[in-house]
Amino acid sequence: MLLTLSPLVSVGLSLPSMDGSMRSRVSPSMMAATISAPASTADDAEAQRAAFDEVVMGTYGRFKMTIARGKGCYLYDTDGVEYLDFAAGISTCCLGHADPALAEAVYKQMRTVHHVSNLYYIPQQGELARRLVASSCADKVFFCNSGAEANEAAIKLARKHATQELGIEKPVILTMTNSFHGRTMATITATGQPKYQKGFGPLLPGFDYVTYNDVEDLRAAVRRTRGLFGLGKSRLAAIMLEPLQGEGGITPATAEFIAEARKLCDETGALLMCDEVQTGMGRSGTMWGHMQLGVEPDVFTTAKALGGGVPIGAMLCKARADIFQPGDHASTFGGNPLASAAGNAVLDAYDERGVLENVRQRSVQLKAGLQDIADSTGAITEVRGWGLILGMQLSDACGFTAAQLCAACLEGGLLTVPAGTTVLRLVPPLVVSEAEASEALDKLRAAIASCSAKHAQS
Ligand code: PLP
Which residue's CA lies nearest to atom 7 of ligand 1? Predict the structure, then answer.
């Protein structure tokens, strides 16, 4: 493969071939320049992507675009093309991009002290924990770096609680079909979708799966934890669920289903655990998604929006589940001064800028607009979701997939994310304005028209 490289790496070098046989002809510094230099032609950009793919593992299917910068709800690629960002780093950049207050807080903390071990007291972490506890039914917080890690912590907590507090020898955690809890071994086991588990067996023992929103199936699964004929002592350690399934297609739990889960946990002493990695931090229109359903979990997890895009995750629990002792669980980076400062800056913004109220108002506007698009195009059978986590269910007859619609949106300058093959997900920054929401609706309408026209021609 012979490619013309950008001016910075000068003339006619051959990039490494797929089998790496020409690797020696490109020095690491040349490779770095190839990947990071501004691309001046389409060929340059293609060469940069090829150089990137040579050294970064292929775990993601990526669009052929490179983001250079962002401002508010907009991103700009290396050609200066503007995109209205209704993906927000997948429900993460709650304050949008390059927020001055978040940037200042992180910069200030970086210049003071950015990381110390959890061997010492970290005031920024304590302050963030205090505010998270004040915002919820929880009493205690454990900090980590991501959603999967927060869920790992919850799974460990549930097992220890079952063993130590309930005297269960082989605890069982119930999770839901179509759920998503992360990519570590424990969290792919918890994830009730075989496609995420395939090829990674053996999975962890001690998990069983319930059809989401099926009360009878939930009761039957709890009965199964009592052994043959459902007569023994329950081995139920926890019921774990997303209040609204994000990756699984923007499907809220029903109030009836989660109330039954609460009841079964109360009866057995097991923990009700909500994965709020995507729904938490105000995205649902209330601070926590479970508040939409009128139920208090014993444990819940969060990440994504917690640091506004600065990596941080957390597991929160009620006093009855606060059983970890020193040495039981840990994270080197968890809740370090830098990440905690970001979390506090996000909460400052929520307090000062009426972010939750904005989520509710924009939600009403977007839902009405999406319903209008659904009614006039016939391509969408249902608009669903809470706050600013909204999904459009594509009709069987529309002739295009969520991925194709997402690509058409991108072409028209709107970033979105599929949630499964037939649902398009809209998860803008929580500070999105009325004008930006209108612009997104216009772009979406145009993208649907373009997909429909292509389908009609094919
Ligand atoms: N849980 C839910 C509900 C999620 O949506 C995600 C990510 O999309 C995760 C867990 C995993 O989070 P992370 O990618 O930060 O590990």
Answer: 182
Q: Which helix (H) or strand (E) holds 391?
A: strand 389-394
Task: Please provide the DSSP assignment of 289-314 as one string.
Answer: GGGGGT---SEEEE-GGGGBTB--EE
d(CA 409, CA 367): 18
| Strands (DSSP E) found in 185-230 | 207-210
Task: Enter the tokens of residue 59.
Answer: 């775990």
Cβ-contact 238, 273 below 8 angstroms: yes
CB 253 within 8 A of CB 287: no
Distance 336 CA to ligand 1 centre (A): 20
- Helical segments of 304-433, H only: 337-353, 355-377, 402-411
Q: Which residues does ligand 1 sit against, CB inside 6 Å?
A: 90, 146-148, 151, 180-182, 242, 246-247, 275, 277-278, 303
- Maximum C-alpha span of the chain: 76
Structural contact between residues 97 and 72, judged by C-beta atoms closer than 8 angstroms: yes
* Inter-residue contact 341 to 105 (CB < 8 Å): yes
Residue 354 Cα to ligand 1 midpoint, Å, equals 26
Angle at 447 between CA 442 and CA 451, to 5 degrees: 150
Q: Kindly report, residue by residue over 303-361, the tens digit of the pLDDT.
A: 999 999 999 999 999 999 999 999 999 999 999 999 999 999 999 999 999 999 999 99
Q: What is the pLDDT of residues 180-223, one digit of tens each?
A: 999 999 999 999 999 999 999 999 999 999 999 999 999 999 99
End-to-end CA distance of the chain: 34
3-state secondary structure (DSSP) of residue 280: coil
315 CA to centre of own chain = 15
CA of 246 to the centre of ligand 1 (A): 9
Ligand 1 atom, smallest distance to 151 CA: 10
Give ∠ CA 304-441-310 in degrees, rounded to 5: 15
Burial class (CB in 10 A: 0-12, 13-18, 19+), 263: middle
CA distance 286 to 120: 33
What is the per-residue pLDDT across 76-102, written as a single tens digit (0 to 9) for each?
999 999 999 999 999 999 999 999 999
Domains by residue range for the chain, with CATH: 1-55 (no CATH), 85-92+355-457 (3.90.1150.10), 100-353 (3.40.640.10)
| Total number of residues shown for the chain | 458
Spatial contact of 22 and 2, defined as CB atoms under 8 Å apart: no
User: Which H helix or E strand runs over 189?
Assistant: helix 185-190
Prior bond of 243 cis (ω within 30°):
no
